[in-house]
Amino acid sequence: MGKPKTFEHFRDVQEELGRSGAAIFRDASGVESLVIDSPYSIHYIHSYAEDSEFFLGLAEGKLLGSRCMNHACAFTYATPRGHCMVCGSPTTWMELPTRGKVHSWTTCLFGSEAFLKETPYNLALVEFEGAGSLLLVRLKDCVQSEIYIGMPVEARFAAEPKYSITDVWFVPAK
Amino acid sequence: MVSGGVTKFAKARPATDFRLMVKMAYDQAMAEIPNLTPKQLDGSRIAYFSDHFTRQLKAASMVQDYLGLNPKGSVRLEWGGATGGECFQAAYEAIASGRMDSCLAAGFETMSRVATWKGNEFIALASDTNFDFPLGGFYTGYYALMVIRHIYEYLRLTKFSHVRDEREAQRLAVAEGQRVMSWVSVKNHLNATHNPYAQYPKRLTVQDVLNSEMISYPLTREQICTMSDGAATAILCTESVAKRLTDRPIRITGVGTGTDTMRLADRPFGSVPLFPHEKVKDYEDLPYPGVHSFRAGRTAGLEACRMAGVTDPLRQFDFIELHDAYASSEIQTYEDLGLCKYGEGYDFTLSGAPFLKNIDYGLSVPLAGKLPVNPSGGLIACGHPVGATGLMQAVFAFWQLQGTIRQHFGDPTLQVRNARRGAIHSHAGTGSAVTVSILERGF
Asked: Does any CB of chain B come closer than 8 Å to the CB of residue A52?
């Protein structure tokens, strides 16, 4: 008898019932339980709010970080923040170089359900000249054996923006 | 702490929902202190991590209800992976503040309700959903990013500094890191064969661990904890009530918490907060914490140790139960908790210090028994039902300090002899929150 994917953890399906996605499970001690499939989906209305400029920048092929407006601090962020985490002052937008270096990286052979079909993919934390923090991105056009910490990389931008962090990715620098 | 209870952790428990699981762990704890009736219990602190997994809001109210504890005071705690540890400290605070004379801390998680990779997605929602999650949000990926840098800082730049070719040097360093991480996996899985509550007890070799499926380079399946269903409880009370309930109470002598940025990308490159046995010059050229170490864990450890008067954790603790969601984070945590200096975690593992003396791991572990870490098997082998995990550690530590491991496990192997002081360590996110609690024999 075929086992619905939803019930992957339950090895002992005894009997599927008339209603689709309902089944009786029996555990090792013989206790029976009724288990049903219970789907759930939702659309969220998500605002990027104070991060909006960054995502609009990606659509124009620009990488925007932010800089603390307190001159005594002036911390620069490669992943923008509306306010400085060091001194609490507001930040201003600044354009980042589109070239950087790999600070750390991995190749994911598995992922969350939403990204399983994209595996394997590389993630990299990129460091930029003049920025005090990093940016997490996908690293494309290279395989695991080629990647190393310190590797020069450069940004690529989606021709048709989806207004997501995936609108930018990095590749080995030419 | 006067009593504790824990269910066996399992991939799925279709015959017991979260209310019944907590009830089972609660009944186990109450049965050991018959002089405390439910009526005399002043209230509770109840914890679970994810409303996505339960798909039942106010699930903690349903636990309070099912246990028959209404209308006593209660509150729900959530602190990511550190949910259990936070719940333990919340119950401690209820007692220490004088608000309650006795308090139940209860935690649970029911992760089997969705398929494994959907569960990974739920967990990854505990990363920034603007900047991190859409890239393929996956916690094993985040921990892989961290350990690759840890290996770079502490193996590439030291043991492999003589290798000229950069790619080759890093590849060799990662291979060495993977080998040492596998020792942690071997230790925890084998310890768990003596713990009847553990989900994945097994004897593995280093080669088995290295050969298991690659999940996110360099972490293999056997180096990663899995999803579980389970519950755990701890009962805390004032000293005078405790003495009435048990002749073997355990004192909570230190509590600490620490935090760090949600995004790995934002972690600063500053200086190390030091334990008394460390010096500024030990870390002169070390950018800290970066993405390679957990400043939250160091902060929590320092606070708890200061409170308990611990100045040299390696010598003053008899065992530690720490949050080994990944074999890598166990090694990183040795350093955060000051069991060795930053950079010494790999050598500390290979010295055998965190291994038990009376178990044959098939490895050369000359210093075994010096400071057993995760004698229970930890998260890697016991399972990680998030809201229960930190309380599971409290229960195992409690039994260690009581000297009742034989009675509770039906096997004396994991009993650390003359255990007088232990620590439990509960860790959230990519290290965005950590709790450390210190427990000592109170008799």
From this structure: no
Q: Which of A109, A170, A25, A61 is nearest to B117 (CA)?
A: A109
Q: Which residues of B323-333 are buried (b: 16+ CB within 10 A; e: fewer)?
A: bbbbbbbbbbb
Summarised one tens digit per residue, pLDDT across range B73-130 is 999 999 999 999 999 999 999 999 999 999 999 999 999 888 889 999 999 999 999 9
Give the closest of B145, B146, B215 to A110, CB-based: B215
Residues in A touching B267 (Cβ below 8 Å): 133-134
Domain annotation covers residue B391: no
**The domain containing residue B265 runs over which residues?**
134-226+252-379+415-441
Which residues does chain A have within 8 Å of residue B269's beta carbon, measured at their own beta carbons? 132
B120 and A113: CB-CB below 8 Å? yes
Is A144 an 8 Å CB contact of chain B?
Answer: yes
Q: Could you tell me the two tokens for B83?
A: 């949910």
**Half-sphere exposure for B61 (CA within 13 Å, toward CB):** 5
**Would you tell me how many other CB atoms lie within 10 Å of the CB of residue B109?**
29
Rounded CA-CA distance B255/B89 in Å is: 7
Please judge whether B135 and A146 are an interchain contact, meaning their C-beta atoms are less than 8 angstroms apart.
Answer: no
How much is the ipTM here? 0.96
Helix residue ranges, H only, B193-260: 206-211, 239-245
Distances (CA, A) of A3 to A26, A34, A105, B14, B410: 14, 15, 37, 15, 37
Do B131 and A115 count as a contact with CB atoms less than 8 A apart? no
Among partner residues B121, B156, B170, which is closest to A112 by beta-carbon distance?
A: B121
Task: List pLDDT tens digits, range B36-64.
Answer: 999 999 999 999 999 999 999 999 999 99
| CATH code of residue B184 | 3.40.47.10
Residue (of B421, B82, B75) closest to B251 by Cα position: B421
**Residue owning tokens 């500094």:** B161
Tell me if B410 is assigned to some domain.
no
Q: What is the dihedral of CA B208, B210, B211, B212, to 10 degrees?
A: 80
Whether residue B137 and residue A115 make contact (CB cut-off 8 A), yes or no, is: yes
CA distances to B72, B184, B396 from B228, rounded to whole Å, are: 30, 20, 17
CB-CB: which of A78, A112, A164 is closest to B138? A112
Residue type, B325: A
Q: How many domains does chain B have?
A: 1
Q: Is residue B38 part of a domain?
A: no
Residue with tokens 């959903």: B129
Q: Which residues of B touch A35 (CB under 8 A)?
A: 14
| Structural domain includes residue B419 | yes
- Grouping H, G, I as helix, E, B as strand and the rest as coil, residue B110 is strand
Q: How many helices (H) and strands (E) does chain B have?
A: 16, 13
Residue recorded with tokens 């496990």: B409
Kindly state whether A50 is in contact with chain B, defined as any CB-CB distance less than 8 angstroms.
Answer: no
**How near does any CA of chain B get to the CA of A69, in Å?**
18
Write the pLDDT tens digit of every residue in B197-221: 999 999 999 999 999 999 999 999 9
* Whether A106 and B12 lie within 8 Å, measured CB to CB: no
Q: Any chain B CB within 8 A of the CB of A114? A: yes
